[in-house]
Amino acid sequence: MNTRTESSLLAGIVLAGGLSSRMGQDKARLLWRGRPLLTHMCGLLEQSGARPVRVSGDYPDFDAVPDKLPGCGPLGGLYSVLPILDDGPAWVVPVDMPRLNKALLGRLRDAGPAPCVIFQGQPLPMRLNIDDACRKVVASMVQQREGPRSLHALQARLGVLELPLSDDVAPWLVNCNTPAQWEEVAS
């Protein structure tokens, strides 16, 4: 893979390939401030300077990448998107974290060098350094049916820098998996 140019230092990845089974409807299509969550999250990444922004999941309107291995969760989404991105850092965000903001993405961007950077105890959002080593680790993890297929396990294998999670940050990192959580965040 090529390395991204100076004019586009970070890519963006929106993980939207899940089944939304606990929500009972497609989370990516829930309306947040008048527009679908998927549109909101892509816009947030673009406004923060991400180029390109890619979506994992079956969303043709977003030139998204359908999951190659359905049922593998966020790791499966990464596995599907990583081959089409150039080497370099990328923000990885879930589709269901509407309160995430540019300032928090900036903190991830500006953290020191590391294969991945997260807020303490929060697997997402994440700044992930995409390179051949990262792609190989993700591929080996999704192909091992018995092994751990979680973002936590990926981060541990790659090496993670955890930023402190202060009380002022935690409310912005809430993701919505159930109708009750959505109602609380959307109100």
Automatic annotation (TrEMBL):
<dbReference type="GO" id="GO:0016779">
    <property type="term" value="F:nucleotidyltransferase activity"/>
</dbReference>
<keyword id="KW-0342">GTP-binding</keyword>
<keyword id="KW-0479">Metal-binding</keyword>
<keyword id="KW-0808">Transferase</keyword>
<dbReference type="GO" id="GO:1902758">
    <property type="term" value="P:bis(molybdopterin guanine dinucleotide)molybdenum biosynthetic process"/>
</dbReference>
<dbReference type="GO" id="GO:0046872">
    <property type="term" value="F:metal ion binding"/>
</dbReference>
<keyword id="KW-0501">Molybdenum cofactor biosynthesis</keyword>
<dbReference type="GO" id="GO:0005525">
    <property type="term" value="F:GTP binding"/>
</dbReference>
<dbReference type="InterPro" id="IPR013482">
    <property type="entry name" value="Molybde_CF_guanTrfase"/>
</dbReference>
<keyword id="KW-0547">Nucleotide-binding</keyword>
<keyword id="KW-0460">Magnesium</keyword>
<protein>
    <submittedName>
        <fullName>Molybdopterin-guanine dinucleotide biosynthesis protein MobA</fullName>
    </submittedName>
</protein>
<feature type="domain" description="MobA-like NTP transferase">
    <location>
        <begin position="12"/>
        <end position="152"/>
    </location>
</feature>
<keyword id="KW-0963">Cytoplasm</keyword>
<dbReference type="Pfam" id="PF12804">
    <property type="entry name" value="NTP_transf_3"/>
</dbReference>
<dbReference type="InterPro" id="IPR025877">
    <property type="entry name" value="MobA-like_NTP_Trfase"/>
</dbReference>
<dbReference type="InterPro" id="IPR029044">
    <property type="entry name" value="Nucleotide-diphossugar_trans"/>
</dbReference>
